[in-house]
């Protein structure tokens, strides 16, 4: 969904391309449980522009009255409440977009290729992905030390910076 003027419409994601993202079975289990407790609701909105062709989609995330929510309503009504309950101050830095900044370095740190990650995130250029997210990889120095230790057959006796 996106906001056009002040109205919600269905539309393709930014860049007008869809993305397939592999998810582990644990996410599937959690999603199944969520869908059992909160079944998807059919919601009809125009496609692309207000007054566009009416399109009905079963929404997994919807308002309490089974209506579509814009991102601002979701952030204020749900995301900020969840952050507060977790003891995190709601700020721009902890907004929904922060999930991308969690997801990307997590996958890079686990060894996912920059090319694959750039496709998951919808980036046209893997170089952009690398420039944007590598500084968020807190264990990269530790990995470097372990790699060098492995080459020299050393047992690390503590981490140090030369």
UniProtKB/TrEMBL annotation:
<keyword id="KW-0233">DNA recombination</keyword>
<dbReference type="Pfam" id="PF00589">
    <property type="entry name" value="Phage_integrase"/>
</dbReference>
<protein>
    <recommendedName>
        <fullName>Tyr recombinase domain-containing protein</fullName>
    </recommendedName>
</protein>
<dbReference type="InterPro" id="IPR002104">
    <property type="entry name" value="Integrase_catalytic"/>
</dbReference>
<dbReference type="InterPro" id="IPR013762">
    <property type="entry name" value="Integrase-like_cat_sf"/>
</dbReference>
<feature type="domain" description="Tyr recombinase">
    <location>
        <begin position="1"/>
        <end position="149"/>
    </location>
</feature>
<dbReference type="InterPro" id="IPR011010">
    <property type="entry name" value="DNA_brk_join_enz"/>
</dbReference>
């Amino acid at each position: 969904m996106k906001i056009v003027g002040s109205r919600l419409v269905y539309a393709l994601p930014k860049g007008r391309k869809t993305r397939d993202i592999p998810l582990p079975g644990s996410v599937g289990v959690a999603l199944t449980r969520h869908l059992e407790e909160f079944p998807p609701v059919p919601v009809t909105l125009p496609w692309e522009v207000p007054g566009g062709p009416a399109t009905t989609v079963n929404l997994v995330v919807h308002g309490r009255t089974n209506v579509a929510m814009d991102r601002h309503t979701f952030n204020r009504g749900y995301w900020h409440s969840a952050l507060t309950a977790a003891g995190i101050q709601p700020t721009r830095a902890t907004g929904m977009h922060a999930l991308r900044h969690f997801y990307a370095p997590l996958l890079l740190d686990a060894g996912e290729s920059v090319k694959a990650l750039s496709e998951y995130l919808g980036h046209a250029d893997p170089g952009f992905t690398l420039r944007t997210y590598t500084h968020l990889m807190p264990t990269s120095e530790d990995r470097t030390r372990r790699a060098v230790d492995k080459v020299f057959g050393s047992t690390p006796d503590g981490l140090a910076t030369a």
